[in-house]
Amino acid sequence: xxxxxxxxxxxxxxxxxxxxxxxxxxxxxxxxxxxxxxxxxxxxxxxxxxxxxxxxxxxxxxxxxxxxxxxxxxxxxxxxxxxxxxxxxxxxxxxxxxxxxxxxxxxxxxxxxxxxxxxxxxxxxxxxxxxxxxxxxxxxxxxxxxxxxxxxxxxxxxxxxxxxxxxxxxxxxxxxxxxxxxxxxxxxxx
Length: 190
Fold this sequence. Notes:
Elements: E1 24-27, E2 33-36, H1 44-47, E3 57-61, H2 65-77, E4 81-86, H3 89-99, E5 103-107, H4 115-125, E6 130-135, H5 140-148, E7 153-156, H6 160-172, E8 177-178, H7 180-189
Parallel strand pairs: 3-4, 3-5, 5-6, 6-7, 7-8
Antiparallel strand pairs: 1-2
Helix pairs in contact: 3-4
């Protein structure tokens, strides 16, 4: 049955019920699914890959290249398509107009134009585009300002592994998504 610790690709489609304890599923860029015995399946970041891949076109905007690379990797592992990246708010608005992505992920604190103002401008120019603010800021007034500017989501960066893919998919379906850690603040203000 092979050597302990090695992964074995499975050539057929895998459903969540088929994954045994101690294993998980990885989706390759071609959409093939592989069982990995060395990873745990019940962690939230692995549960997301069981959902069927969507043909969403995403844009990432963050001034930190390492953060962009990490977010892109997380999204692409879940079968989502990142078509373009921006390093600041002005570039995000310009590239959004040029490429017209379905969902745009914007860092709140970017040079030249912050994520909230970028979301406002994108909303005005491309009303069908859905925007999500990614940030470290937990204060309610940032959440309120982002939603008033037309953002459809607000995700804390320290929660991205567990919430980003779910948030992108919910926002793409027309829903508003706020990080679980902040949802009680939003509920109190409504």
